Amino acid sequence: MIKKDLSINFLGVKFPNPFCLSSSPVGNDYDMCKKAYEVGWGGIVFKTIGPKSYIINEVSPRFDALTKEAEPFVGFKNMEQIAEHSLEENLADLRRLKKEFPNKVLIASIMGNDEQTWEELARLVTEAGADMIEMNLSCPQMTSHAMGSDVGSNPELCKKYCQAVKRGSKLPMMAKMTPNVTDMVVVAKACLEGGADGIAAINTVKSVCNVDLQKMIGMPIVNGKSSISGYSGKAVKPIALRFIQQMRTGIPGIEISGIGGIETWEDAAEFILLGAKTLQVTTAIMQYGYRIVEDLTNGLMHYMDEQGVDSLEELVGKANKNIIPAEDLDRDYIVYPEINKDMCVGCGRCYISCYDGAHQAMIWHEEERKPECDHNKCVGCHLCALVCPVGAISKGEVVLKKTAKPGRSIKNIRL
Ligand SMILES: Cc1cc2nc3c(=O)[nH]c(=O)nc-3n(C[C@H](O)[C@H](O)[C@H](O)COP(=O)(O)O)c2cc1C
Ligand code: SF4
Ligand code: SF4
User: Fold this and answer.
1) CA within 13 Å, CB half, 280
2) Bridging pattern class, strands 229-232 and 71-78
3) Contact at 8 Å (CB) between 392 and 375?
4) DSSP code of 46?
5) What pLDDT, in 10s, does the model give residues 215-236?
6) Which segments of 194-231 does DSSP mark as H helices, in order?
7) Which domains does the chain have, with CATH numbers?
8) Is the whole-model pTM more than 0.70?
9) Most CB within 10 Å of its CB: which of 57, 101, 142, 359?
């Protein structure tokens, strides 16, 4: 088995590997966190600890899932707030975890409801032995509007609360962003101005996941009603990657902990290539358990080996330069689909999708049940390749458009 050093330095703290539990029920108490450390997670962001005065009273049931065909969890909706355990119990768990796992990274997630409580919580978790603080400025389903994503979408408040946390603690601190904003760069900048050392992104996306058609109520149903609340899991990965890419390119030197739909080592590598240094996971753990960290670490080590890198740091942000404004993309050529007739199983899906959803460029040969691309009609959109269930369609011949710039050649086009 290939072994590579997965350790990484994030905000001055050395993580044995970049994989962390994100703040949620997966890191709710001492026993859970102990098990997670033991199976190989590099760090834990403990379930968000709130002010003593804020009493948590959760609904039942509190989850829902978006499914598709055989997939039970395309996306996941939760209506949960912050830690239900008492402040004293949470601080005791933090103390015990740090004592028993001194080489693993312990991050305390906190959420105040005014400057004083933010400062006080920062002080308390520092005394309890946390290595780092994460400010939860982003839960979209708090029952108080003085907390959560209502705060996280207000840059001035974010700045003020970051300053309060910095008064309460000298620990490295990251501010956790809500994706329920148009421009995360503005909020992240305000947090950094307020003293945040780095950014964690993203928390959950506001959602209505499903509606029960007979009862005509959103899901989950709580005594005949439902609420808008946070959506996570695989479905939110593209949203998370977009925000991370924009922050990484919009704020020089920013350090980011990436969150949102990480399930596989490939997801993890994508977050790293767009600028995340550490990675946090909840929904995939809720679905599959802590052991997914074995696949995550092994896969990432193999990827490092394949890429010929010895340090994870070398990969951070490497793909950012290849995401450019739409107006700067090369619009001079078409790449036609190439159909591998040996692989094709004759299902006809490329033909149907091209006819009903693209440019009627697939010719269907009924006798042999095989498609053929008519280059006179094909625009090279590659919908057909995306719907083919056996991967029989790839990128083929490249041709210049009539509108291509004079002197353009197809040499050196990277597909
Ligand atoms: C059931 C549940 C509870 C959560 N509770 C918290 C929380 O207490 N604090 C917090 O910062 N984020 C909380 N989150 C958000 C996650 O930490 C994470 O940001 C989000 O789920 C996206 O990551 P994922 O797709 O890996 O789940 C919660 C998420 C879920 C699903
Ligand atoms: S690339 Fe688009 S237009 Fe061309 S055959 Fe495929 S689906 Fe049709
Ligand atoms: S979708 Fe793929 S397998 Fe189905 S007919 Fe088209 S090329 Fe063949």
Assistant:
1) 31
2) antiparallel
3) no
4) E
5) 999 999 999 999 999 999 999 9
6) none
7) 8-322 (3.20.20.70), 330-400 (3.30.70.20)
8) yes
9) 142
